[in-house]
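Reopening: Protein ARV still failing for me.
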Amino acid sequence: EENGRRGGLSISENKEKSCQKPVDKYIEYDPVIILINAVLCKAQAYRHILFNTKINIHGKLCIFCLLCEAYIRWLQLQDSSQNTDPDDLIRYAKEWDFYRMFGIASLEQTSFFLGIFITLWWMTPEMLKRKSDFILLLKALLLSTYGKLLLIPAVIWEHDYTPLCLAFIKVFVLISNSQAIRVTLNLNRILPWFAIFFGLILENGVVCLFQKMGWDV
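Support: Ran it again with your exact input. Result attached.
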């Protein structure tokens, strides 16, 4: 029996040596600790969330973040002399502006993701051979936009939106996107940022197109 135990232990050790990767330590961690480590953009926390948890809120999270972003853009279009009469046609027109802002934000994010997919498919085609690879990367990118939830306090309390605050949230989301790409495709640190840079170029191209059409974005 003792020999069997020793044999089993040696087999386990051989498996660990052949794998050469640490066991997911977050399996036994409290969800709050995992969330804190994800906010700190730790790669292993991202890997645990993406591969060892069953999260199916990708679409809902994406829509909610887009609604927050559209609401902030809509508020920035408001005049200080806004008429509070609910029957005012101008008020309804501005409400339609909210749906327009939601559509523009959706197109911008779509172009951003499209730029990332094109760059990664061009530079690492072996990583994106199957449809499931694209779906997994898309889910990772959608989850990594959770940083936009930082806009919720601003939406609730109607705080003054400063360019510094918006820039901070943007940078945080981009860092999360980079970690999601890196963990999903097992890449180095440089290539995800290169893909994000190309995605930003494509996104800004869409913004310029809307501006040439005379739309406020």
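Confidence is low (pLDDT under 50) at residues 1-19. If you still see a failure, please send the error message rather than a screenshot.
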